[in-house]
Amino acid sequence: MSETAAIELRKFSKWYGRIIAVNDVSVGIDRGVTGLLGPNGAGKTSLLRCMSGQMRPSLGAVRILGQDPWRNPALARDIGLCTDQGWLMDELTPAELIGFDLRLRGVEEGKTRDRAIEALEQFDLGHAVDRRINTLSRGTRQRVKLAQAFAYDPEVLLLDEPLTGIDPVARATTVKRIKERGAAGRCVLVSSHVLHEVESMTEQVLLLHKGRLVAHGNAMEIRDLLDQHPHRIAVECDRPRDLARAMVDLPSVQGFSFPSESVVELHTKQPDECYAAVPARALEANIKIRRLTSPDATLEMLFRYLVGEGS
Amino acid sequence: MPISDRGYQPYEGPRLPSRRNNWVITSLELRRIWASLLVKIVLIIAGIWAILRVAWVAGVGYFNVTLTERASQDAAAVEQLRQRLAQALSSDLVLAGIDGQLVFVILLTLAWGSGAIATDVRDRALQFYFAKPVTERTYLLGKITPLAVYCFFICVVPGTLIALVEGSLLQGQGLAASRSALVLPAILYSLVLSVLLSVGSVGISSLSRNRLLTLAYWAGILFVPLAVAGIVDLATQGEFVWLYLASPLTMARLLGRAIFRLSAEGPLQWYHSLLTLAAVCGGSIWLAWQRLSKTEVVG
Amino acid sequence: MATKKRIALVPLPPLAAAWEVTRLELTRVVRGKALRAAVVIAGLLVVAATISCLAGARDSLATFAGSVRSLFPWLAIALSMLFAARVISDDVDAGVIHYWFMLPSPRWAVTVGKYLCSAAVVTGVLVGSTVLLYLGTHIAEPGLVGSHAGDLGRAVLAMLGAGLSYTAVFLFLGAAVADLPYLLPLIHVAVLEVGAGSSPVLEIASIRHHVGVVLGTPAQVAADETVDTVLETLGLVTPEVPLWASLLVMAIVFASGLALGVIVTEFSEYRTGKP
After folding, report:
1. Domain of B166?
2. How many domains are contained in chain A?
3. C102–A71: do the CB atoms touch at under 8 Å?
4. Touch A-C: 3+ C-beta pairs under 8 A
5. What is the ipTM of this complex?
6. How confident is residue A309, by pLDDT bands cut at 50, 70 and 90?
7. How far apart (Å, rounded) are the C-alpha atoms in residues A201 and A177?
8. Would you say residue A300 lies in a domain?
9. Pairing between strand A263-268 and A253-260?
């Protein structure tokens, strides 16, 4: 565990009666963007709620910037939270809600509205500044929550399913803002099911399954450690079987499969050696390669392998 | 690649007669009402209160009967005691026993009835119900009947028990039959109260998806006219009582007095109450029917 | 990793934060429908009394005192149920509670702020209605407005006490069981205000009795004949409570209700209800 970790969990467990939501997790999360992944019921929301001080751990400890977040209002100024459900007051406008928040955090009364509008415009919400929250669509409400969490530039941002209900254009803006905060040295923890978008934000992941920490670190490094699941390299070419014949004597190749007439998939535990050998062998055999991809180089495959569904 | 619609597929199996649906919806609602913690607590407290009241009547009545039997020296004194006892153990006490349960019936309708349809609207359950062979009539009956059953039992149990206790205590005076016969008015009055309050609360609950709002509407209908009429009554020192016509609770109690053949306590008579009670019941059902008929079912 | 320097902000002190919470909550209440309904209902009562007095009521003071004594404690209970009992549970249902507890202010400041808003609304409606009722009932005898001012003063004091104490108690009871915010308040009303409040001697446990003492004319308890007989035999009669004692009782109820409400919210973990 890094000594400078912004978020630390030490033998952290959380249960509700007889249901164990999170089971003995110890991890340090550094600054930058980290993806928190896991299937439904893995314990992600419970983890985020304890990190934000909404709940106490049943066992173990949570530390945010070295402090316990439970009943610690002084720490709340350094934590931004965006939940997946609720949170907004229907009777208010986004400007009023964020303005109130900023006022409590010490921004001068006369400047709160301007800062609130600035925060909303970061998420392309200039049109919704003075509209009542109960008149906004689900996606717009989600962006208001994000704007509220980002408005006072906290050190630690905890985002629970931040992209829920947001349209593709707004998603791109949101991802950009998240990456900006990560690059500026903030600790951003993003919980999401939209794996390809977490991929676009970061390579650092934390994978939970049934309350346990299954993997933590760089997604590709984790992938390399999965010996029981060889890498797959898909080559689309004019003569896939001839290419397979040309590659069969390579020690790093463990097997082949032919998902279609024009594609051969190489199974290997040494992908780097294979990537280097494929063009050379294709050239020797006069085979035209149209495309070279790795179906495995996705978070989705990593997710499947680690939670046991396999390919 | 062919496009295949894997959405809604119509039910092709046998369809049972709609009579059975009444029982299905009613039994579901009976279980749902019982599953509510607040309802259980109201029922338990109502039961305890009813037992205490009946025990009180039985205890005090028995005490007085014993006194009467012991005062055997003076025949006039004995006769006086007997008459006082017969006066005390009368239909007034049975009526008071049922009226004493009114607060629990009102609580039950506020806790459950006033949100019965609102909750289904909020949870989009109406689309679930009406995508099945369930008619508006079946749905409404299924909502009203279980609530009326619970309200009826809250009222009828103490009323009937008090009537039977009176009959047993006055056996020596040959009044057992007349007192025991009070069971019938007790049942009828309990029926009136339970139907009025359950129909009214369920009908009002169709006005909005916001449960708090429908609860406020129902509480308003029950208490605001009563409060306003009370203030006017107070101000005019009983000279102007006609505003009580707008109060369903007062009108129900007026009808109750008539059912027990007790004279009315003012210028308002039992037939004045019929219009109010009909308006509450009829109006509630009409409101609910309008709402349910307009429900769009996504097929 | 280069860390971009943040602009340091100093959060408001807790009491100032509580005041800001009160302001925000008042905005929410004013924009909601509940306040309008409460004002309409209170207004109806005032209008009814005014019309009756205009039409020839016998005694304006008796009408005023009788209305306040018999109806306004129940109005205080209803308003407290509406504006205090659900204050925490509504926010739990809507997920807003997580927003409140993420603010850089202690939880007690949020709870106190919410209480101040509820108390302001409840006492505002009660006191406003009392004053309007007084003016309405004296509409036919304007010369007596000044001479009965003392009764108005006591009535306003009684409504202040009722509003503050009922709001505090119901806020605590509603927060204690956030899933069923009306459960404990209803039990309180049934047992203490209706049950004990209608019984000689036991009525001292009800806030309504003390409201009556402050008003100057505690309600006559209409007991059963059978109950009367027993109590006469046992010599049980409700002792007379001095004004200062009733005010003290209401102050204690208010303080303990608020303190318990703060304690409950301080240590509770809330899980959001519906999606």
Report:
1. 19-293
2. 2
3. no
4. yes
5. 0.81
6. low
7. 10
8. no
9. antiparallel
Q: What are phi and psi of A29, to 5 degrees?
A: -115, 120
Chain A residues in contact with C272 by the CB 8 A cut-off are 83, 85-86
CA–CA gap between residue A142 and residue A147 (Å, rounded):
9
Nearest CB to A153: which of C6, C31, C106? Answer: C6
Boundaries of every domain in chain C: 59-267
In a domain, A15, yes or no: yes
Q: Which residue intervals of A151-229 are DSSP H helices?
A: 168-183, 195-201, 219-225
Chain A interface test: which of C3, C10, C99 (most A C-beta within 10 Å): C99
The distance of C89 to chain A (nearest Cα, Å) reads 13
Residues of C in contact with B219 (CB under 8 A): 78
- Contact criterion met (CB < 8 Å) for B41 and C33: no
- What are the beta bridge partners of residue A208? A213
pLDDT in tens, chain B (299 residues): 555 566 666 667 776 667 788 888 899 999 999 998 889 988 998 999 899 888 888 888 888 777 777 766 677 777 777 777 777 778 888 888 898 899 899 989 998 999 999 999 888 888 888 877 788 888 999 999 999 999 999 999 999 999 988 888 887 777 778 888 889 999 999 999 999 999 999 999 999 888 888 888 899 999 999 988 988 888 888 888 888 999 999 999 999 999 998 888 788 888 889 999 999 999 999 999 998 888 766 54
C132 contacts chain B (CB < 8 A): no
Distance to chain C for A99, nearest Cα, Å: 11
Tokens 């950009």 locate to A176
B211 located within any domain = yes
Asked if residue B217 belongs to a domain, the reply is yes
Residue pair A145/A87 in contact by the 8 Å Cβ criterion: yes
Q: Which residues of C touch B119 (CB under 8 A)?
A: none
Q: Whose CA is closest to A227, among A256, A268, A278, A257?
A: A268
Same domain, A128 and A245: no
Whichever domain contains A208, its CATH number is 3.40.50.300
8 Å CB contact of C96 and A73: no
Q: A306: part of which helix (H) or strand (E)? A: helix A299-306
CB pair distance less than 8 Å for C272 and A86: yes
- Please tell me which of the candidates C57, C78, C180 has its beta carbon nearest to residue B235: C57
Domain of A180, in residue numbers: 7-223
Show which of A223, A257, A281 is a domain's final residue. A223
Among A16, A19, A89, the strongest candidate for a mutation testing the C interface, having the largest count of C CBs within 10 A, is A89
Q: Does C98 touch chain A (CB under 8 A)?
A: yes
Note the pLDDT tens digit of each residue in A82-135.
Answer: 988 777 888 899 999 999 999 998 888 889 999 999 999 999 999 999 999 989
Task: Pull the structure tokens for residue A75.
Answer: 């720490």
User: A111 and A200 share a domain?
Assistant: yes
Phi/psi at A105 (5° precision): -85, 0
Whole-model pTM: value is 0.81
Per the structure, the count of domains in chain B is: 1
- Contacts of residue B19, Cβ cutoff 8 Å, sequence gap at least 6: none
| Co-location of A182 and A239 in the same domain | no
In this structure, are A65 and A189 located in the same domain?
A: yes
Query: Which CATH number is A278's domain given?
Result: 3.30.70.100
The contacts of residue C132 (CB under 8 Å, 6+ apart) are C43, C46
CA distance C165 to chain A (A): 27
Q: Say if A308 falls within a structural domain.
A: no
C37 touching A, CB under 8 A? Answer: no
